[in-house]
Amino acid sequence: MLTITSVAISRLMLNLRSLASRLGYDEEWIFNNVEISRLNWKKGEREGEIIVEVDDHYEDDQDVELLERRGSMLKDDISMFRQEVF
What we know:
mainly alpha
C-alpha cells in the first residue's frame, strides 16, 4: 500500500510540474516553500529531485479500517437505494 501511494504521489507531482510548464508557469516554484516545509524530505541525486520520507504509523492502519467500514456502509446504502428504485 505504501509503495502504491508513493508512486501515485510522485506521478501526480510530475504531472503538475508538466502542466505548469505547458501553461507557462515556472515549474521550479509550483510547490512553494510552505508546502514543501511540511514534508520530511531530502535532496535527491539529480537536479530538482526530492526524496520524501514517509513514516508508517499505527494510525494509518486505523484509517484504513475506518475507510473499509465506511465503504461497506456505502455499498449497503447503494443496494438499498437500488431496491427502492426498482
